[in-house]
Amino acid sequence: MTVLRAVRLDEQDRLIIIDQTKLPGELVFVELRDKTGLIDAIARLKVRGAPAIGIAAAYGVFVLARSYSGLARLEFLEALRADIAQIRHVRPTAINLAWALARMEEMLRQHEHEQPRQILPWLRREAQAIFDEDAAICRAIAAHGAPLIRDGMGVLTHCNAGWLATSELGTALAPIYAAQEQGKKFRVYCDETRPLLQGARLTAYELMAAQVETILLCDNMAASLMAAAQVDIVFVGADRVAANGDVANKIGTLSLAINAAHFGIPFYVCAPSSTLDQSAPTGAQIQIEQRDALEITEMWYKERMAPAGVGVYNAAFDVTPRELITGLITEAGIKYF
Ligand code: MRU
User: From the CB of 250, is ligand 1 less than 6 Å away?
Assistant: First the structure.
């Protein structure tokens, strides 16, 4: 299976991402050189998916630090810390962004008495560690989740939690890729995931490239597919997991979980344990990102799809209560609720 890197440092230590807004039509690689470019890429979902956002931000801190390395030490620290504070709020629900930036800040703090050029290798090393750890986590999730997939199954997934959303392999798609490598025969239903179509544009792209049998459906079709006994198991990713096990993930995950519970279909959430937010006792404390109304009324079309002036609800994520989740698959194994 060919896996590209959604986020990487190239041989010259340039931060390169795949511009995911162009997929599946064009595979475009762009360099993120400065804070404006990094913030724009995260805000507009050129780079997206909780782990990939964290990795991009971590590499981004290194790239920004390098651009400030000619400054005197205190000015360097001030400029970099101000940028980190700004980047942290670009996407509020995915905890990986704040988590990765906190790791970079801690590395900066540990070396703050050194000169800027001496600090750079430490920041690079920490960002690379975040990437490498994520890759190992994805492989572990693949190993824990693959045995749940059996020949003949219909597997349903929502949004995109594949290699485009992580360092490699993905979280929710990792067991699927592992089961495919093991030669199992199954099909994957992928929700198109309105409004930004991560399922249609990205998951279908990934799965078809891996030659997985892929069937695309509109989000509102999942219940009827379940009623027709075509879905045997559901795998989704997570943007944040509250201390009690409630899960924030892409909008639509909650209705999928309710439907799965109604039909008695196992519903698994796949995520690194760093997605766990102990400071949020339940899902009610997780901040849900609200996005531009234009994503619903106009985006992806040349003409408006809705009357001008209509009110719009555009929550990017929802919270699925723990009671609806069969198990949480992390690098440590499967935790059953
Ligand atoms: O808005 P997005 O595309 O960043 O949302 C992505 C998701 O909701 C994913 O399921 C989640 O981040 C996990 S990605 C491994």
Answer: yes
- Decide if 239 is catalytic: yes
Same structural domain, 153 and 134: no
b/e per residue, 27-53, with b = 16+ CB within 10 A?
Answer: eeeeebeebebbbebbeebbbbbbbbb
Q: State how many domains the chain has.
A: 2
Strand-pairing partners, residue 248, are 240, 319
331 and 234 in a common domain: yes
Distance of CA 174 from the midpoint of ligand 1 (Å): 14
Asked whether residue 278 falls in the same domain as residue 171, the answer is: yes
Residues 32-84 pLDDT 10s: 999 999 999 999 999 999 999 999 999 999 999 999 999 999 999 999 999 99
Angle at 87 between CA 83 and CA 91, to 5 degrees: 170
Q: pLDDT at position 305, please?
A: 85
Please report, for the domain that includes residue 68, its CATH number.
1.20.120.420
pTM over 0.90: yes
Tokens of 171: 């979280």
Q: Answer yes or no: is 2 within a domain.
A: no
The string of pLDDT tens digits covering residues 95-113 is 999 999 999 999 999 999 9
| Cβ atoms 112, 74 nearer than 8 A | no
* Domain edge (last residue) among 140, 166, 183: 140
The CATH number given to whatever domain includes residue 220 is: 3.40.50.10470
Q: Give me the domain span that covers residue 146.
A: 142-336
Q: How confident is the model at residue 302 (pLDDT cuts 50, 70, 90)?
A: low
Residue 180 lies in a domain: yes
Please report whether residue 94 resides in a domain.
yes
Q: Are residues 256 and 126 in the same domain?
A: no
Which of 138, 249, 296 has most ligand 1 atoms within 8 Å of CB, for mutation? Answer: 249
